[in-house]
Amino acid sequence: MTTTQKPEPRVSTSNQLSTRSLDLRYGDRLVVGGLDLTLPGGAVTAIVGPNACGKSTLLRGLSRLLAPAAGQVTLDGADVHRMSARSLALRMGLLPQQPVTPEAITVEALVRLGRYPHQRLLSPWSAADQKAVEEALERTGTTALRDQPVDRLSGGQRQRAWIALALAQDTELLLLDEPTTFLDLRHQLDVLDLVAALHAEAGRTVVMVLHDLGQAARYADHMVVLKDGRLAAAGTPADILDADLVRSVFDVECRVIPDPETGTPLVVPKSSAVRRPAASA
Description:
The chain is 30% helix and 27% strand. It is α/β, with parallel strands linked by helices. It has helices at residues 55-62, 85-89, 107-112, 127-139, 155-168, 185-202, 213-219, 237-240, 243-250; strands at residues 12-26, 29-41, 44-48, 70-75, 78-79, 92-95, 173-177, 205-209, 222-227, 230-235, 254-258, 265-269. The protein contains nine helices and twelve strands.
């Protein structure tokens, strides 16, 4: 079978997020500690790791939703906490893990909120604003849902509506916290294919938290692996994802083989129990 090799990422020095000696806390609890990290601009980065290892907390710190207890987060060398909210919103879009939906808001009205950073006092809604909304609805398959209240949608439909809001914001840097949550396999792949297209077409920098290691390896140019709030590994999936890493981070015995479709690393867990034959009647 001929495999499709993943193209080389268009890495650049713009839209580059970095952390230096970063500590993130909730109260007295240290969640991320002493993190030195650089996320390449112009690439798709997947953040992976076990539950409660600090993945979503790191994304909150990168987007300045959570202030560092120590250390610094920079975007192209500038401290994100010294940037104005509007200037950061024009450069960085965020899909949080569990977004709170305004009561009774329709899908289109929600997506229109993504254009807020582009608005100025007394400026009218423009054709460019409406075009961005229409494209976001179309790309996420939510055009037919535009007049539906978001709180009446299924979990998967709501997730796609929120992704549409992030797309309408039209930023060069997009942070997605578990964007495939609530989605069945088909819609998971639809979302990840959309992420890949956004990167390929416009060179957008994407940072996303994922649970599925195979999907992360298939769609990401760069992978960050966390364990207990510390950096376990960072690099291309082909360079870092092996059986030893999976064992040490996830406590799972496995084989790592080439994905038959893409040639990217595919994690195949070993069975932890011997399957017993069914008893005869």
